[in-house]
Amino acid sequence: MHTILLVVFMIILGAIIGGVTNMIAIKMLFHPFKPYYIFRFRIPFTPGLIPKRREEIARKIGQVIEEHLITEELIRQKLNQPQSRNMIQQLIHKQISKLKNDDVTIKKIAGFLGIDVNELVDYKLTTKFLNKLNFWYESNKYRKLSEILPQSFLDQCKGQIEYITDFLCERARNYLSSEKGERDIYELLDTFFNEKGRIIGLLQMFMTKESIADRIQHELIRLTQHPQSQKIITKVLNDEYETFKDKNLDEIIKEQQFKNYSQLVLNELKTYLNLKDKTERPIKQVVPQFIQFLEDDTSKRMTDFIIKGTSKHLTNIMKKINLRQLVEEQINTFDLKYIENLIIDIANKELKLIMTLGFILGGIIGFFQGVIAIFV
Fold it and tell me: Where in the cell?
């Protein structure tokens, strides 16, 4: 009986020692969280293994994740899988449908991004438009008009001179034939007679003032139809045109005048475009064809563009993200108690098995120690 009790006692003692030893060993992985000192000497095994090796563990985990788990090749493969492609395309379709069904405006979309679209468009249009025009003027103000304008345009203008001659003659005939033209001729003739006095008054002995005015009107109309008159007008216009096109730009229009005209054109352009109204109207009303185009063709192209663009620039993206450093920094920010609970939650069964194995091995060792003690 004494022998059996000795063996049982040794088994229980060995099991307790083995189990408790494993429990202490597991605890020592995490505890203590900080080193303890006696005088100036640090107590061995403080802090625990994981707190002590925390930075190294974080660095190794980051390295493993970057080099073996989340690699560039793996991400490329995932991006090009049909499931990923379909998911991206469905997301694009969803956003397009939202644009179509909701009263989403350009102003509202810009507002989400913190942009005042009306102010931005007005600023961009004003600065770009005026800067372009001012730059063009500064670059060309000392050049002749014939050097600035295309030759085809100059030839076309020259070809219009005969048409202008015919136009001027026709307008002159219409004016001279009108009641106003007849009245103006009579008034000018009356003024002329009054200024020239008696000598001119002698003409009235042979012709009345009305007949003289009628004669002048008839002759002026005839002159507008005479080929020689038309040739003279054409020659004058040609000479003026040649003189005009050989002038420098700044002789034709001064810099301040050009700026004033540019501002007037810009104001008219803004009024015509009415961009403020367009930014406050639903996109489906402003550009319905664009929404239809997005539905019919763009979603697939955008999906291809996103996948190809991401794959192409993935190396640079991964470098900028620096996954290894990101994981390392994140792990180093974790509270040690949180890390302990996390590991215990993950390996709870295995840790319990280790403690149980400690009890079993301790009991077996205790059994053999008891047997040996009987024979010693």
Answer: Cell membrane
Burial class (CB in 10 A: 0-12, 13-18, 19+), 307: middle
**Which amino acid is it at 190?**
D
Instruction: Please state, in angstroms and rounded to a whole number, the distance separating the CA atoms of residues 324 and 65.
Output: 7
pLDDT at 113 (0 to 100): 62
d(CA 166, CA 17): 124
Give the rounded distance of the alpha carbon of 300 from its chain centre: 21
Q: Which residue has the tokens 């219009």?
A: 160
- Is there a contact between 48 and 337 (Cβ–Cβ < 8 Å)? no
Find all residues with CB under 8 Å of 165, minimum gap 6, and list them. Answer: 230, 233, 234, 237
- Angle among Cα 245, 248, 249 to the nearest 5 degrees reads 95
Query: Which tokens hold the place of 7?
Result: 């063996």
Distance between start and end Cα atoms, the chain = 17
Q: Is the peptide bond before 44 cis (omega within 30 degrees of 0)?
A: no
**Spacing of C-alpha 184 from chain mean position:** 65
Q: How many CA atoms lie within 13 A of 74 on its CB side?
A: 8
Tokens 């100036």, residue located = 40
pLDDT one-digit tens code per residue, 280-319: 676 666 666 666 666 666 677 777 888 888 778 778 888 8
Q: Is the dihedral of CA 221, 226, 228, 234 positive or negative?
A: positive
CA-to-CA dists, residue 159 to 164, 166, 231, 241, 323, angstroms: 9, 13, 14, 11, 71
Find the length of the chain: 376
181-223, pLDDT tens digit by residue? 888 888 887 777 776 655 555 555 556 667 777 787 788 888 8
* The pLDDT of residue 320: 82
| Phi, psi of 359, rounded to the nearest 5 degrees | -65, -45
Predicted TM-score (pTM) above 0.90? no
